[in-house]
């Protein structure tokens, strides 16, 4: 048994996430956690909302709410959707928590003691009309690169270039609209990442061979370009305050840490939030401190977050000079696109997780997204592909098999699993096939190859169909009732096996399949290949029920309605 720490990139607080966010971070982390738990490992899966920064302040302003209130509500709204998706976090925290404030301040003090933080005077946009500095998105204006006139102080949405507020032409305040802006000098804390370049390089060199190519290539690119010193404070109300014991002057001016500094630290902060709920039994430090040899840490994210996790956060952890756990494996994803275009929160393009659950239960989405995860390349969501996959894999291959076997057996042999004779040659062949596919499935899960794992699972389901077609119990029963009973008992054992091994992808359906059998102590979590081969976990005489249809078949009208509601090709 190993101890596995798992985190997925923190969803930003300003709105409900889309299916791209789901498949690029939280869902695969959940699938992997569920798999490891089933295999008997000690797993801690931590996530949280990322709550600081200007977008949160601006979103709160738009809704006329104090930012703390806005974040509290938005956190609960996101959590409700994740519950709907059956994401089994051990804890879903908040980066604005007291715990994260404490740990972030501790990190900053240590970095300062070790010579990695410096106060520097910089020139920033100040608005006399608003009585404040205007960082990031608080300034809007014309992009100096492409001329787009609604560029924001942190980035131009049109040409995607990263900007500084002072770069903008004809700048105006995003709060008051005032154009009477000045550039004033003010002091901020800088993290001297350039001093950590060599250490980070050495650390990455020790790990990159284990990482997927997508993660190591992005880390390499950033290191080659060189680590720059970065401002880690902002003039905002909402954020982790700069500690007054170390920087009295900056604290008095109300400076807070910039969101990219405190967000990854929240992985630790949320673990402490989790432990503080039951301090007698939970030890947050055992997961994070001096845990290099006892914990395996896997992070999930899409490619835009890779630099933060492979280079910048490790630089922070290294600079603290304390034995904080660093990531072992970075599972990075490409983009899920919507008909080849960008899923966009700001433009409301694509399918959002709350809408998805409105339409169909979580298992439909979980299976589809994992089977089509953007692993080796971007992958495109289309309603055509979604409905075809649901119909073929979930409704026909799995759902129909379960229903057909159980209803037929009930009709001909009553409400208990029939006995039949000894397994024969067909059952032996099936057993070998199942053992082989199960081993393949396990191998792909261990390797975090989600598409391939889903393909192996689908092949396991298909093997049941092939067996049923071959034995054709509906014909067999006319000449050999014992033989038909054996076939059905074997098929019912397949259903039970499917319930156990499909759980990481489709937990609710798995529960329904398992619940079909009244087994007194059914705690089977995973079966070894040998045990799977025997297909004997459900003995003859076990009472069973026929569950309601597991997956509804989607019709052409459904497809047309989805495309009508969400827009298809033209987006
Ligand atoms: N289309 C996508 N496909 C896969 N992963 C994505 C996609 N869009 C965002 N992600 C990932 O989702 C996670 C949570 O993202 P976050 O809440 O910060 O939103 P974001 O990156 O601002 O995306 P968006 O602006 O599209 O909402 C991150 O790991 C991010 O990389
Ligand atoms: Zn531009």
Automatic annotation (TrEMBL):
Cofactor(s) needed for function: Zn(2+)
GO molecular function: methionine-tRNA ligase activity
Binding site for Zn(2+): 143, 146, 156, 159
Record EC number: 6.1.1.10
Residues that coordinate or bind ATP: 345
Motif 'HIGH' region boundaries: 11-21
Reactions catalysed according to its record: tRNA(Met) + L-methionine + ATP = L-methionyl-tRNA(Met) + AMP + diphosphate
Domain Methionyl-tRNA synthetase anticodon-binding: 417-570
Coiled coil: 427-458
Entry keyword Ribosomal protein: no
Pfam families the record matches: Anticodon_3, tRNA-synt_1g
Subcellular location: Cytoplasm
Keywords: Aminoacyl-tRNA synthetase, ATP-binding, Coiled coil, Cytoplasm, Ligase, Metal-binding, Nucleotide-binding, Protein biosynthesis, Zinc
Domain Methionyl/Leucyl tRNA synthetase residues, every copy: 4-406
CDD domains tied to this protein: Anticodon_Ia_Met, MetRS_core
Motif residue range(s): 'KMSKS' region: 342-346
Gene3D superfamilies (UniProt xref): HUPs, Isoleucyl-tRNA Synthetase, Domain 1, Methionyl-tRNA synthetase, Zn-domain
PANTHER family, per the entry: METHIONINE--TRNA LIGASE, METHIONINE--TRNA LIGASE, CYTOPLASMIC
Similarity section: Belongs to the class-I aminoacyl-tRNA synthetase family. MetG type 1 subfamily.
Record NCBIfam families: metG
Protein name: Methionine--tRNA ligase
Gene that encodes the chain: metG
